[in-house]
Amino acid sequence: MATTSTQPVFIAFQDNNDTRPIIDAIMADNPNAKLNEMPALVKIDCPGRLVVRRDTISELAGREFDLREIYINLISLAGEVDETDEEFVLEWKTS
Amino acid sequence: MAADGNMKPAKKLSLKENYAMLTRGLDWEPTYQKKEDIFRMIDFEGIKIHDWDKWEDPFRLTMDAYWKYQGEKERKLYAIIDAFQQGNGQFNVTDARYLQALKIFLTGIVELEYASHRGFCMLGREFPGAGPRIAAQMQSIDELRHCTTQIHAISHYSKYFEGMANFPEQFDRVWYLSIPKSFFEDACTSGPFEFIVAISFAFEYVLTNLAFMPWMSGAAFNGDMSTVSFGFSAQSDEARHMTLGIEVIKFLLEQDPANVALVQKWIDKWFWRGYRLLALLATMMDYVLPKRVMSWGEAWTIYYEENGGALFADLARYGIKPPKYADVTIKEKGRVSHEMWSVFYANRDAVNFSTWLPSEEEMAWFSEKYPDTFDKYYRPRFEHWRQLEKEGKPFTCKCLPQLCQVCQWPCLYTEPDDATEFLHRETEYKGETFHFCSDGCKDIFADEPEKYVHAWLPVNQIYQGNCFLPGVDPTAPDFNPLVEALKYMGLKPGVDGGLLKDSIDAQRWEQWTSRPANIHEGAYTDFVRKTTNG
Ligand SMILES: [Fe+2]
Ligand SMILES: [Fe+2]
Ligand SMILES: [Zn+2]
Questions:
Q1: Distances (CA, A) of B178 to B194, B282, B380, B403, B432
Q2: A3-94: what fold?
Q3: ipTM rounded to 2 decimals
Q4: Could you tell me which chain B residue has the CA closest to the CA of A75?
Q5: Handedness of CA B265, B269, B272, B275 (dihedral sign)
Q6: What confidence tens digit (pLDDT) does each residue in B450-484 have?
Q7: Contact (CB<8Å) B217/A93
Q8: CA distance A28 to B414
């Protein structure tokens, strides 16, 4: 059920070696995402909805990734969160 | 169960099942005490909750994961702090002005982490629902972690530089620190629902990105790996706290339509309270950080107008409107930092950090970032003050400013539609006159005058002679309330406050690093010239 909202959601991580596969996975899974780099942090903005997928991160990290590991380097987010074992979704419901 | 070598291990629970066991399965219904006797604070505000089980925490954090990941965050943080200390990182920040930012952070923000810890302890006791109670308990532990790691990290600077050792005393007594102090005391003395709307939603969700994203990124940019690491480590918990904030709002609005008006009132109030508190941050971002990542005006555009705009567009389906006076914050975004830095400069002998005037380079940056306001309103003032400094008679304010009864800032903001006119509002209540910095603060007073008439305003207390140390005789002929008040606040002339170029920090910085205390002004002492001139 795709949202019709185009309001920006965002997720921000520390810019470090642990987050490289996470950031790459998000950019691969969200074609409309925009990467904003600032000193020491990375902010990814995306209209309406952004998904973080466990599978993609595991693939890029070369190991089984527990999605909750993102907490360690997470800085901030905007959007309503829905988290399962496989996906961490940020979404605005209304435009 | 009989031992059975062939027994399959129990199926691992999914995240949702695991969380449901924690927040539903472990709670119980009281049998020998009445529920209303156990949760006594939950009704008086007028919020109606019909079913606490409708509470859904999207983070679904379970205890095992909480301790595991928090432990990992601490190990990471201390690895960086150790490396920073072993590498003499305190001398690798941009210049001695950066140290002044740390003093404001330590006295103005770290103490709020502790206040927040106390507030969430209360919620962890008061909420009848197990889901929100657990979320509040975890947050209360997080906030204590933030407070202790921040004190610990900054204590390293205190081994080398002055003015940080007495931060708890200063937080209680230095006049401008009543701005952050009264903010959290106002929240902690509200009911539990107002507290959580105030802190989790209005403050953490809507406003703290400004503190922990551009400001912390700025700390990194100025070479302070220790501060940026505790900042980001704290902020990694903040994502969870913010989510709690938005869940609370949705939960309250979905439980009963009668909750909408109360929630809107609290959003209006606490957005304005939080915004006024952040004027301190605006000043730090634009004036105190020696190298800047973005201006306050740009940060407000991104984090409030764009991201906050998306949030309030989403909440419109519940009948929630953007906060009252949000338009004023946008009108003020090109002005607050300049106006409040002027206040600090003019009152620099009574604050716990030293001040300076913006350099030519910095004023050029302001002209570019604030094209509609800086050259027109503020550049002439700073150029005039620079001239006075050159003539050896720097401008100082000879009397203390009138404070706002609600936010406790000096009433020295300007009219939303006229930056040349000071903004001043007042009201009569029971035969007394009360003063305000804005319509936002005046409205907050009008809604709860009996609460705010009790505000402890430092300036009023100083002039009434209530701020002096034991043993001082206010009836003595040479009693000077201002001098005694400085002692009471724990401020020592030449050590705390004053002009940076005269400060002990600047002198030691140049002596120990051979680099200028203010990179834009050249050396203040011979320690730098000696090495640079060979
Ligand atoms: Fe915190
Ligand atoms: Fe927090
Ligand atoms: Zn005010």
A1: 21, 17, 31, 10, 22
A2: Phenol Hydroxylase P2 Protein (3.90.56)
A3: 0.91
A4: B236
A5: negative
A6: 999 999 999 999 888 889 999 998 888 988 888 89
A7: no
A8: 48
